[in-house]
Structures are given as structure tokens and as C-alpha cells.
Design goal:
This protein has about 230 residues and is an alpha/beta fold. It has 8 helices and 12 strands. The strands form 3 sheets. It has a 5-stranded parallel sheet, sandwiched between helices. A 4-stranded antiparallel sheet has the order 6-7-8-9, covered by helices on one side. Strands 10-12-11 form a 3-stranded antiparallel sheet. A hairpin with a 2-residue loop joins strand 6 and strand 7. Helix 6 crosses helix 8. The chain is elongated, with a radius of gyration of 25 Å. The two termini are about 45 Å apart. The relative contact order is 0.09.
């Protein structure tokens, strides 16, 4: 569902028609009060928001959306006749995901909508993981135990990251082998065991967090229980 907040009847109807033709569900609002009432009933996937509106301007609406925990990450594209660099920067600084100045082409608008929706649907990699004394930051490729850097090989790093992502769930040897190495050995999983042993050694005392589940694989034990 896309919510379109635009007080110009001609533009609103034209955009709504074009989006429905592309297969999107659309609700149109000429007044901010109607938009807020709809927000109480159903949350959309994306909001197309004009700046110059009666009752409340689009930037004020954007501020309210971004300040509420429930809508802080709701995708918003600004649609506005204001095309100065200052207006664009202000909208983007307030948290708009994109900015389209009028007049705009429908194909361009639809392309931007698809791009924003794709970005919003992509799983977000957590910036960091902590498990007891273990700290891992995938985006910076940092691995530490008790604040001290631990040098890991690429496969060891991937193993640790996968265990941390699992949140304590049991991961089979076959699953680890296929996910990290990309193949299986028809039941031969010694490669996984060897890398787990080396990983435990490098983690020192924190290696005890990696528990062996007999006949299955490995998991991370709860820090307070190990």
C-alpha cells in the first residue's frame, strides 16, 4: 500500500492512476488530517508526500513520522514544486528517502519508488554483534574478545559471524559446510570441526561459548551458563 498526500487534484489523480496501472495499491489524501486518520488504521509500505499542503506542510508531517518509533523508518518520497537545492537538502536532512521535483515524469517517479522499496525490503546487516566477551563488527571486519583484537582467517570469521547471527540456535555441520564453503562432502564434515577447533583456540577463554551438539553440529551457549 502506498499513501499519496497531494492537495492538487489533477496531480493526485494522475499519480494514483499511474501507480495502480503498475499494480500498486494506493490511497489518496488531499488533507493531512485524512492521512493521519488512515495511519491509525493501516501502515503503508511507502508515503509520497507533497510539501505545500493545507493544514500542515509536508516537512512537518515528515518530522512527525521520523520522531515516532513506529514510523521512524517508513519510506518517504517528497513530491514538491520546490526545486531549490536548499529545499532538497532540508527534506533529505529530515529523513526523506528521496526527493522528486515537479514537474516529473511518471516513469521516473515509478523507478524511484521501486528503488526506495527495494532498499527498504533488503535485510539490514546488524552493525555489530556481542556475545559475552565476544564482539564482532562485520561492516568493519573487527573481531575482539574482552576488547582485544583477535586475528581470524576469512573462514574462521565467517564461522563466528554465522554462529552469532544464529542467536544460540543449533547449526548442523552440513549447514555450516554448505553455507561457508559452498559444497558438501557426502557427510564428511571434518573441515568444519578443524576450523571450529582453531576458532576456539583463537578466542581463548571465550572459545567455551561455542558448544558442540553431539551428532548435529554447534551452537553458542548462553554467556551466563558457560
Amino acid at each position: 500500500m502506498i499513501y499519496l498526500v497531494e492537495d492538487d487534484n489533477g496531480i493526485r489523480k494522475l499519480v494514483g492512476y499511474a501507480l495502480r496501472k503498475e499494480g500498486y495499491q494506493v490511497e489518496e489524501f488531499a488533507l493531512p488530517s485524512d492521512f493521519w486518520a488512515a495511519m491509525e488504521r493501516e501502515r503503508p509500505q511507502l508515503v509520497l508526500l507533497d510539501i505545500m499542503l493545507p493544514q500542515e506542510d509536508g516537512l512537518s508531517i515528515l518530522r512527525r513520522l521520523r520522531s515516532a518509533r513506529e514510523t521512524a523508518k517508513l519510506p518517504v518520497i517528497m513530491l514538491t514544486a520546490k526545486s531549490s537545492e536548499y529545499d532538497k537538502v532540508e527534506g533529505l536532512d529530515l529523513g526523506a528517502d528521496d526527493y522528486v521535483a515537479k514537474p516529473f515524469g511518471m516513469m521516473e517517479l515509478i523507478s524511484r519508488i521501486k528503488a526506495v522499496l527495494r532498499r527498504s525490503e533488503e535485510p539490514k546487516e546488524p552493525e555489530e554483534y556481542t556475545w559475552g566477551s565476544i564482539y564482532l563488527c562485520p561492516s568493519r571486519h573487527i573481531s575482539r574478545v574482552d576488547g582485544a583484537d583477535v586475528v581470524l582467517t576469512h573462514k574462521e570469521y565467517e564461522l563466528l559471524a554465522l554462529l552469532l547471527k544464529s542467536g544460540g540456535k543449533v547449526l548442523s555441520r552440513d549447514m555450516l559446510l554448505e553455507t561457508i564453503w559452498g559444497y558438501t562432502f557426502d557427510g564428511e564434515t571434518r573441515t568444519v570441526d578443524v576450523h571450529i577447533r582453531k576458532l576456539r583456540q583463537k578466542l581463548g577463554d571465550a572459545g567455551k561459548y561455542i558448544e558442540t551438539v553431539k551428532g548435529v553440529g554447534y551452537k553458542l551457549g548462553e554467556p551466563e551458563n558457560v
